[in-house]
Write a structure and sequence with these properties.
The chain has about 325 residues and is of the alpha/beta class. Helix content is about 50%, strand content about 20%. Strands 3-2-1-4-9-6-10 form a seven-stranded mixed beta sheet, with helices on both faces. The chain has a four-stranded mixed beta sheet with strand order 5-11-7-8. Helix 1 links the parallel strand 1 and strand 2. Helix 1 runs parallel beside helix 2. The longest helix is centred in the last third of the chain and has 68 residues.
Amino acid sequence: MRIVVRTHDRPQLLARALDDILGQSYRDWQMIILNHRGDRDALDAVVDARADRFPHECLILDTDHPIGRDAIIGLGIADPQGEYIAIHDDDDTWAPDFLARTVAWLDTHPEHVAVAVTTDIIQERVDDDGVTVLSQTPIRPPFARISLFDLVHAAHVPPIGYLFRRSAIEAVGGFDGSLSVLGDWDLMLRLAVAGEIGYVEGETLAYWRQRPQNDGALANSVIGDLDLHRQTDRELRDRALRDYIERNGIGGLLYTARYTDELYAESRHEAWMRAREIEAHMTQRIEEQTKHLEALIAQYAHHYSVFPSLRRALGRVFHPRRGA
C-alpha cells in the first residue's frame, strides 16, 4: 500500500503527520512525500529523525510542477506499488486504526472502488506556542453512505477520510492534471460512476484540520482559495453538462430547468399565502386579547376608584372635622 503525503514548508505540521502515520496499527505501507517547492533541508530533518521507524523506505519527490496541486498528488500514485492508495496531506490526521479498518473493508469488499470513514473537521490555530484546537465538528454523509446522488452536490468526506483502490483509480483515468483544486471531488465522482464506495460508520477515524486564522503556508486551500474552488466547481459542472448535451441534446435540461423554476415559484406562492393566513389569524387573536385586557383594566380601575371615594364620604359622616 502507498501513502501519499503532500507538503510545502510546514515542518511542524509534517512532523505531526508522520508521527500520525507511524502510529497506525496497520504497518504494511510505503510512504512517498511530495515536496512542493519546500525547504528540502527542513523536510529531511523531519524525516531523518524518524527514519528507523518506517516499515519501508520513505521516498521523497521534489516538485516545482506547473500543473495543479491535485495532479501533484497524482505523481505520487504513478508508481504501481500495492493495491491501495491513501492521500494524507501534511496538516491532517488519522485515528490509529484508520488503515486497519479501511484495508480490512476493501479486502472484504472487492467490488468497492474505495472506502470512506467517519470524519471530523478540526479548526485550529498554529503559532510559536504550538497548535491550539478551536473547535471540532462532525461531518457525516447523508444516510451513512457515499452515494453518487449526494456527490453530485458536494464531496461530504475529504481525501483524508478515504482509502482508494489503485486499479479503480487507473480505470477511471486517474487525477485530472489540469485542475488546481477539487481534483479529489472530480475523481470521487468518476469512481462513484464506476462502482460503489464503501463507508465505515461509527467512531471518528479521520480528522480534516483547518486553520481559518492562519495565512501563507499554514492556510488551507479550501479557505485561502475559496474563489478558485467556486470557479473550478462551475468549470467541472459545465464540462459535465457539455458531455451530457453532446450525447442527449439540451431539450431535457431546458424542460427540467423550467419545470423546477415553476415548481419553486408555485411553492413559494403557497408559502406566502400561508404566511398571510397565519399573520391574519394572529392579528385577529391579538386584537381579541387586547380588547379583553382593556375590559379587565377598566373593571379594576373602576373598582379601585369607587372604593376610596366611598371610604372618604363615610369618614366625613362618622368623623366630622374637629372644631366644627
